[in-house]
Amino acid sequence: MIDLTAIILTFNEEKNIVHCINSIRTLAKRIVVIDSFSTDRTVELAKELGAEVFQHKFVNQAKQYIYGVGVADIQTKWVFRIDADERLTPESAEEIETICRENENTDVNGIVVRFKVTFMGKELKYGGYYPFCKLLVYKNGKGYMEDRCMDEHILLSEGRSVELKHDSLHCDYKDLTAWIDKHNKYATREKEAYFESLSNLEITKGLSRRAKIKRFLKVKIYYKLPLGFRAHLYYLYRYYFKFGFLDGKEGKIFAFMQAYWYRYLVDAKIYEEKCK
Asked: pTM to 2 decimals?
């Protein structure tokens, strides 16, 4: 166990929260759950596993996390943002512990966590989805959350980050109906982020290299393509050029849903907003 506080944002995560907390219990000195008034057993299960639980009305991921950092009054050396459908493996937990211990007094202020993504019970190896990387661990006072309605990242105010060599797991045990509901909400926030990007300067300082590239491609290239047509190109890129078809039926469904449902839905909501 190291001097680290883990923060988990939840809403009706009874199928995931136990796996998430159990994967970090030997690593984190303190586990804090920020719940959006779940109606299932999420809060009960989290408390049974020793987590501190605070409840707060949800606006978006960034504001919820910022609230969590404030209300938790974190005093530990390190902070770890982890979602309920994410979990460490013994190997990645040990690697995080080693990096944190060896870099207490260095300029390494952040850790990028690598994930294997599972969809409908299948691990996706192609389509450009592996590895899915995010800067999630950072020194207290050296990192902060972007205040964005979507595509939010942890930014470092100084220093550098290192990437884990071992993979963690991004595995949601909820069904496809839950996935659709979640991505409908994501699409609304993505629409809001799109209009924000038209008027606000995109902040890239402090982002990891991967995150900078991803944001540049989305804002400067993807959103410059014709409305609707870009979703089609997204599918062709993921499914054919990035070999998503090698992931079988699940890979086909995932690529189709990401492009022709989620990405096209974002474009439809953008069009709807422009027509008002």
From this structure: 0.92
